[in-house]
Amino acid sequence: MTPDPGTAEPGSAAASPDAANALGGEPSAYLRQHADNPVHWRPFGDEAFAFAAARGVPVFLSIGYAACHWCHVMARESFEDQGTADFLNANFVAIKVDREERPDVDAVYMAATQAISGEGGWPMSVFLLPDGRAFHAGTYYPPRPMPGRPSFRQVLEAVREAWLERRSAVESSADALARGIAAAQSGSAVRLDGPAPVLDAAVLSGAVRELARSEDASGGFGPAPKFPPSAVLEFLIRHAAVASDTAGAARDLAGRTLAAMARSALFDQLDGGFARYSVTRDWSVPHFEKMLYDNAQLLRCYVHWVRLGGTGEFTAREAAVVAGSTADWMLAALGLGGADTPGGTGVSAALASSLDADTVVDGVHSEGASYLWTRGELGALLGSAEGAAVARMMNVQARGTVSETGSPLHPGRRLAGQDDELWQRVRPELLRARAARPQPARDEKVVAGWNGLAIAALAEAGGVLDRPELLGAAERIAGYLERVHWIPGSGGDPGRLVRVSHDGSARGIGGLLEDYAFCVEGLFALYAGSGRTRWYVLAEAILAAACTRFAAGGELRDAAGESAQVFNAQGGRDGMDPYDNATPSGAAAFAGALLSYSALSGSAEHRAMAASIMSLLPPLALRAPRVAGGLLATAQAALAGPLEAAVVGADTPQRTALHRALLRSPSPGLVIALQGPAAESGDDARVPLLLGRVPAPGGAPQAYLCRGMLCRLPVRTVAALQAQLAGMAE
Length: 730
Prior knowledge:
Elements: H1 29-33, E1 42-43, H2 46-55, E2 59-64, H3 69-79, H4 82-91, E3 93-98, H5 103-117, E4 124-128, E5 134-138, H6 152-165, H7 167-186, H8 201-213, H9 230-240, H10 247-262, E6 277-278, E7 286-287, E8 290-291, H11 292-308, H12 316-334, E9 335-336, E10 350-351, E11 354-355, E12 358-361, E13 364-367, H13 375-382, H14 384-393, H15 417-435, E14 442-443, E15 446-447, H16 448-464, H17 468-485, E16 486-488, E17 495-502, E18 505-510, H18 513-530, H19 533-550, H20 564-569, H21 586-601, H22 604-613, H23 617-623, H24 629-640, E19 643-648, H25 653-663, E20 670-674, E21 702-707, E22 710-711, H26 718-729
Parallel strand pairs: 1-3, 2-3, 19-20
Antiparallel strand pairs: 2-4, 4-5, 6-7, 8-11, 9-10, 11-14, 12-13, 15-17, 16-17, 17-18, 19-21, 21-22
Helix pairs in contact: 8-10, 8-23, 9-10, 9-11, 9-24, 11-12, 11-16, 13-14, 16-17, 16-18, 17-18, 18-19, 18-21, 21-22, 21-24
């Protein structure tokens, strides 16, 4: 006999002394957003799955993140509803996951969700066996049925019925899905201990041609929703810097997309920084959350565009303004106080994860409310004439694009002449008025890998934009990661990187492959900009730990067995996904870190490992280049390099000029070693590229350019250095 819906059976959550919402003590801002729900949420872990097994009920797994608009919507409609909560508590064990804390969990269940439903996104709603294998999944479910989409309650009742009446079919479905995920992952497995294949430059040119075919007239690739294609842009910029028959096409493709985004509503025209994506193909209506990982990558892309020299359509000067304001926004809006304490020191020591898409106004979540303007508001603030002029210039119409009358500011074109003068005059007043509004919440967790991306971007921005304070900010972030996230090894232990910290305290799972790789690349960029051997040594240690943790046995994997449930869900194996997501794949980033290290250290072993990872590229480059940008960019660096530069000698304006010329070189295969400050001069022996590179007589500065540690004669002037760079790039 089937019990009535919502009736608590013996052993159910309602009858259990452990029945309660267990998220109140969690550090994750996303989990704490659900701590007051009547749903008896539990964090992801062995205890929650053991509880489901003991009760004999399935698991309902809900995955989202703090800045997610539709996560807030489903919470309000379903998870705050007492009747829905009672049914969930009686018939399931409910588990909440912050996808930014547990991307390993997110990745495997996203694969399951896409296989089952044909769609993916957040909130993700997955139903699991108590051992972690998925058997049903979807994304957002409304409180009432909609065309083509059942209500959440209908889904819960159908799953409960299947669990009670057709258990063997449910288990068979879960087993088949897990085996399917395992088979898909085995197809992208890569061995690191075999012969290294030879890269073919024609593969990269073919990828450029394929990307050109998918270019949208409004910039970017494909239809709406439009996400910033950061990894693809990095590849195109690198490709444009090397002579080939597709270099010009790559330059034009990158320039059109960079220009379109910079002039659109995706970019915050008042305060800097980019939103997560646009719901329209012309970038005019953003989805308003602002993520650290997007802005760190885009900052680096715009800096590299400046380094490349820009185009007539999108100049290096315009890109430098976008890059500078994005860097300023990152540090001001996401910067956390120093001294690794909640109160801090007022100096950014690490960067928070995101700003919410929603702003709470009078107790109601309103998407983008901080950023929207009406014609009436502009007129009241600026006066009728200037208000009307700004409304026309910034595409604020009588009918709003987001709310009934509200629209984000965006020119959709380059501002020049009187328009630019007007905008520069009114912008500070508009920014002050916006700052007085309610502001979106900030997710203050620190993610190691995303801060690694920020270190690289800020360090390079400091050198290219001639803003040393950005290099200083990168050093403070690196110091935080070293103090809080890195656990040094001892004896045979290589050390461990922790993925997440809150309030200056690291906790939770170890870093994933992407965390290690992004941190290593960031630290090498910081070493190139500062010459401080401390950062090279730390990068070397983290890379060695990554090789032990993720490449043991010769096969690369994204995670190191953090959860038995994830292991079960992917068919009893640790997987590796070569495709980019919002950030480059862990495999691509790791290959890039290996390449940089091999150039600085001379290690043929590490370069061979990178080449083995890039064997994944040929089938992806033509079939799916839009999700292979990370591997394409790394392959471009590999083909152009290794090009090694060492700058030695007294710290004089001449040395600064040589160093700056190298930092501003667009060569994608270039790595830079800078002789450290006098107080650290003994540490330079830790960097093999500096060994044997001596100053000119009297200690005068000079630069060495090398390939494979074989160097040309040193040069002392910028002109001679640039001539050598041009000659070695041919």
